[in-house]
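[09:14] KT: can someone run the structure on this one? pasting the chain below
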Amino acid sequence: MRSPLLLALLVSVGVAAAQPAKPKPIAPAPASPKVPRVEIAFEKYSLDNGLEVILHRDPALPRVAVNLWYHVGPANEPKGRSGFAHLFEHLMFEGSKHVGARFDQLLESAGASNVNGTTNWDRTDYFETVPREHLELVLWIESDRMGYMIDSLTKQRLEVQRGIVKQERRQSFENAPYGRSSLALLDTMFPKAHPYHGAVIGSMKDLDAATFSDVKAFFRTYYAPSNATLALAGDFDGDEAKRLIQRYFGTLPKKAKPARRKFATPAFTEQKRVNVDEPVDLAKVSMGWITPPAFGLDEAPLEIAAAVLAGGKATRLYKKLVVEKQLSSEVDASLESNELASMFTVSAIAASGKQPADVEVALDEVLKELADKGPSAAELDRAKRRTLVDLMSSIQLLNGRDGESGRAGLLQRFNHYLGDPGYFPKYLDGLEQVTAEDVKRVVKKHLDPSHRVIVTTRPKPGKGKSP
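[09:31] RB: done, structure tokens below
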């Protein structure tokens, strides 16, 4: 039976929710009220060329979110060509054969909002939200990029975007506070042969080595209807949308669907330590564990465990390290779920004058206590509430800002990893049903201190007061 917590969070987004009848004053409350359903209604079908289509209609606002996933990320990149998927995220905004380089101008003139593209380890996506009368324009643009981007790409445009990506890497990692430490954590967690080794953005060496022929081959393999899913969410006529999708995407040639590459992710058999010297004022301690792939049995308890540990002033790490011991100025815990393996990370930035060794000891104390005793009832309730509120807030959006939140993004994410766009109610059930014992169990099982990576960021001499 679903708890009063989730009942209080239900919102209307194509949600079918039955409220329990108000009992008479002298009658007891019903023992088993009808379980409400929280669903993002959808229709899924495929074109003859293999393009998957997911439609979610909601006429509440006269806008339509278009969200196109290509099932390609670092997990699919050729050896020695890291960063290709992210490079293509940039190249796809360079124009295409029939649209030309007017992409931004056309969307801006149509009143488009939230126009972007993102890349993660397993996919690349492009999305925008437009007034409903401009849906056809966006479908034309996206289909032209899918079928004909490579026809308009020149070596000069490739060089421009290569330079932009390299500069983005410098800003995000080489020249960003704690950026080199983030790279060190990923490099140590995954061996060089693994696709998750390094950053999604790729290495400078591989970006420099990419040839025009490499780019063409990558596009022809992965940027095809058979390797893509198109999701629409919002106010549109279903029959008309299908007609337009067939018109613009159905004529693209059918290609063989590229196989998903399989990689064994080796488990940690020991604790690994890395020290990174950076020009920062405050030391930082980061810990990383490899956890099971996305949507496994332990994902929901691990998600709640992260919310118990950090994310607010009432969480364990904040209370212990920031308030009580005053060792840290900032704490964090997160679970990143991916296809080949997931990553659970915990980190703390040392307060001025505090030693990273003391921060590490305090982090271990909090983790050990959670593994030994589990969360309190209040902690568990708070963690669930915050997680569920975040999800409910997300489904009030047609498109999120990261490509995999909002209704269109969630439909895409569940479809990519599970083949089931309608998994949302089961996902909520899994989170709500997490118990204190579940959290205790997964922390003890997956966050073993003897099987992790610890990266200590040390301020360079002359920076800050920490050694």
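[09:33] KT: thanks! Confidence is low (pLDDT under 50) at residues 1-35, 463-467.
[09:34] RB: yep, looked fine to me
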